[in-house]
Amino acid sequence: MIQEILIFLVVLFVAAALLRDDFAFTILYLFAGIYIVGRWWSGHAIKAVRILRDFTPRAFLGDDVKVHLEIKNIGILPIPWLRVQDSLPIELATPGLFKRILSIGSRGKEEFEYILKTRKRGYYPLGPLVASSGDLFGLGVENRLESGSSHLTVYPKIYILSKLELPSRSPMGTLRHKQPIFEDPTRVLSKRDYVAGDSLRRVDWKATAITGRLQVKQFEPSIALETAIFLNLNPEEYDLRARFDATELAIIIAASIANQVIDQKQALGMNTNGLDPLGNMQRFRPLPIRRGKSHLMQILDVLARIEAKGTLPFLDMLRQEIVHLPWGSTLVLITGNAEESLFDALFQIRRSGFNAVVILAGQIPRTQRIQQRAEYFKFPFYHVRTEFDLDMWRS
Amino acid sequence: MSRLQLKEVFRFNEYLSLTFSRILLIVMMTCFGIAMIQVVHAFSPAWNGSFLSLACLVISLEAILVQNRLRKASDLEHSPTFYRVMEWVVILIILKLILYFRLGWGTFLDELPNWSRNFLGSFFNSEYLLAVLIMAAVWGLTLWFVSDLEEIENDVTLVDASDMGGFYSNRSAIRGRMANRFLTIGFMIVFMTALFTIDFGALVRGIYIFNHRSGGLNIIVYFLAGMLLLSQTHFSVLRAGWAWERIPIEPHIARRWIVYSLVALVLVTGIAFILPTSYSMGLLATMGYIFSLIFSLLSGLIFLIFTPLIMLLGWIYRLFGKNAPVASMPEMKLPEPPKETAGRVQPPWLEVVQSVLFWAIFLGVIGYAFYQYFKQNKDLLNKLKQARGIKFLVQAWAWIKGRLSGFNQAVSSVIGVGVKRLRAFIVRSPAQEVWNFINLRRLSPRQQILFFYLALVRRGGETGISRKPSQTPYEYAHTLDRSLPDVSESVHSMTESFIEARYSNHLVESKQASQAKAYWEHIRLALQKLRKRYKAK
Prior knowledge:
The structure holds two protein chains of two kinds.
Chain A: H1 2-18, H2 23-47, E1 49-54, E2 58-59, E3 64-73, E4 79-87, E5 97-104, E6 109-117, E7 122-126, E8 129-133, E9 143-147, E10 150-154, E11 170-176, E12 183-193, H3 205-211, E13 215-224, E14 226-231, H4 243-263, E15 267-272, E16 275-276, E17 282-283, E18 287-290, H5 293-305, H6 314-322, E19 330-335, H7 340-351, E20 355-361, H8 367-377, E21 381-384
Parallel strand pairs in A: 2-10, 14-15, 14-19, 19-20, 20-21
Antiparallel strand pairs in A: 1-3, 3-6, 4-5, 4-8, 7-10, 8-9, 11-13, 12-13, 15-18, 16-17
Helix pairs in contact in A: 1-2, 4-5
Chain B: H1 3-43, H2 52-70, H3 80-103, H4 105-117, H5 119-123, H6 126-151, H7 155-161, H8 171-195, H9 200-204, H10 217-245, H11 253-274, H12 283-319, H13 348-376, H14 378-386, H15 388-426, H16 430-437, H17 445-463, H18 473-483, H19 488-503, H20 510-536
Helix pairs in contact in B: 1-2, 1-6, 1-8, 1-10, 1-11, 2-6, 3-4, 6-8, 7-10, 8-10, 10-11, 12-13, 17-19, 17-20, 18-19, 19-20
């Protein structure tokens, strides 16, 4: 178009010069003016566009996330047309684009809302939002403006595993235990009459004074469950046919156990050889053993965005991280396979004062042999083939 | 937005845009018709066809309406060609009636007996034929444009078509075609109307005389309407893409498009009418005047720069008992503006301004065109740079550019140094500046904390607890602690606040600044007490 106009203007100019017709300059000014005004207008107008994307950055699986978009023109110049295109993850929205054509007046604003369906756990980028605009006469080029992208974390599915019981050797915790060896002097269970052999330290002098008979305190045994989850996300160590489903299941198991342990006000840590898309696809840094809801959210954040693309062998990770754990901790190993070498290592670990629970995730051939090995070493062993198998820990 | 709603919005926008486009087309064609009438009138001054102006508008409107009716071929009883023939018979009759109405019914009665003898010769006389030709041109062009406009409509089909394979829209090509036609017609109008400003009588005698152009408003309106039509076709091209992608659009976008394009055009037209269109002074004369003006200003500037040096020389001369050289300001004689070549009654300065503006715009447009051309054809530019004569010119330009940039740097550094010295002379001492000009309310919370801490250091120094240059803030806090044990907590808190404000990157809140102020008040009172105690001793 611009070429045609240029040719026209040149020919017009030559003709006007030959015929000494000044009038051609007015036409020339008109075209030049339209071109300049058009370019200037669209160039300036797009600079005055401000885009704001507002949404809850974290969601649980199945939640509907409302994304609120506000497109503002802070300038005086109106924007005749503005094409807005927000890129959305295909896992959460179909089609994966939000598009609108707007016309915003001077200092005006437009607001939109769209909903993302959280169908799969993950760490999803929203955007970048691209806004483009141009002049009214189609003589200039389109101007583009790109706003940054934000991220939405969708947590993995969490099951409430109220029947889950993990072994522990740490005394003086908050969890009841059957073995009197873990009696907690801060948790008085009852009182009884003194019998020979009872320690004088157990005598409850106030109760003795009231009853007139020697009374001794009976303590409730309790343990502290310091748990460390070891999640294997090295795809090579999962069966090829069920690799994707099994790793996802392993993540769900880890999230559910983490939720249960923290819910019992116990401390939990997490180690995995999965990769972090946020950290340039490096291995996740182990999360130390801590308690509290904020720590759980941290663990869930990790489990939400983790990718099963690890290359570090599970056993190597176990050997690297075990040295940082406190004595008596319980290790929950969630993996896709358990070789002889793993049981050998676990045996050594147990001798160092740790407990271990082995959970196999996904469809695995030759499970019986693994189970026999676990029974031989007396390790608690569970095989979770599908999510339904988690019912064994649910009330 | 459902597909039905989407279609509705597209339909509404399209309707508005096409209606406006058709109105613009009628305006354009009327202006074209008027221009044709002017041309014929210039060729044959005896013929007066001003009455046809309104007829042009009517025939353009009629062409659009009939075309709209004929689109639905299924509703027609006969073929479209039949209707066209009938349409033209009616047009010819009405045109003839208009002519008779203008000339008087006596003419009709005079001509009537001749019809039976020589119908074609008497009915289609020269005046009538000219009118018919103009009408036919307007009618034909209107139809041509309208058929193109029809091709760029039907957004609703495009909304559905994105599901179908092999469907495409060539609106862009149609737009290009329409633009070419609009420009060609526009050029023809300008050229022909300009051609008839030549005095052909004088030309026969071998003398070129150009008469002053009269009118021209219709041509301007033609171009304005054409540009608006281009704007609407651009909107149509964009709409096709949006419909194809099924992007929801706003219902009022077409209305705003019309309003904004009208505003832009009004603005541009206003500027275009203000800008000069004559070049009565000539390029060289204008350039010469500008250069002489710059030279006069430069010589005055050089004199001002060298005056202190000449004065110094004069002083040295006088030391040796000789007469000092006399420095006098060169006469700032402004060159006379070049004389006009055409007789115009305007103040000379306005003529100069207009000519300067004109040539600046003219050369700017040419320069920009060349710049854009060579930007597109970089290979050609590189080849040209290698050509022998041009290579020398390029090298010469590079040399001049290098020298100029060196000179520019030198001048800027000299000016920069001068300005710095001047500022140093004018600006007060830093101490005065700090204590006289700081407005606490205008300072950021971080600056406020720094201010309070510096005040503490200054007052501490005045009280005799001065901070050694080697002391860190913590060390100084310990020194203060020993002398002011009562406000030890405030001193430490103040130091912490200062360190945070001085070395942290995070945001310092106003709450922290007000806390620092409170600490400072405690310390200040303690320092005052201490001073009084020292004085009493």
